[in-house]
Fold this protein.
Amino acid sequence: MGKINVLNTKGEKVKDFTLNAEVWGIEPNDTVLYDAITLARNSQRQGTHATKTRDEVSGGGRKPWRQKGTGRARQGSIRAPHWYHGGVVFGPQPRSHSKKMNRKERRLALKSALAYKAVNNELIIIENFKMETSKTKDAIKLLADLGINGEKVIVVVKELDDNTILATRNLANIILLEASEINTLDIVNADKMIVTEEAIKAIEEVLV
């Protein structure tokens, strides 16, 4: 795996960093990556969608008119599906949307997402991402110095601190995570990934 620049908070190169090829240099597995994204999205669904069938809607306890002699079509209930306010046929019912993936697949999906960030030059390594103040404008300036202007960004640090949380919480395009919290869906959704040097080492330590 080739070397990548380590930047300071002003966007200036400080040194080179060699990424671990076992994490960032693998051949991405698109099938496993797709399954992991589907699993993550499915887990966000409540599964409480429901419609009422003809035995659940109110009314319709008796036959609306007699079977024969009226000149009209025979009817058994005013809550049959073809009636106004009738029950729904084959409508959605509460269910679980969860999927299963084994640990090796989850790890491979995460490594595949990270590898794509490295291959597509969407990875930015920074010395540290600690804010001196809790002002949002300072976080915006720091991101601008790193070449981020409105893109969706995931920022990964070793440990969170109060100033960093407060300075970035009002920015809709920023997701701030600790190294232990990274996940496939957030990485894939982000246009850029900013990772501190300490966080890179923590990620590699777990995934190698």
Notes: Residues 103-119 form the longest helix (17 residues). The beta strands are 3-7, 13-18, 123-126, 153-157, 174-178, 192-196. The chain has two domains: 3-46+99-207, 51-91. Helices lie at 21-24, 30-43, 103-119, 136-145, 162-168, 184-189, 197-207.
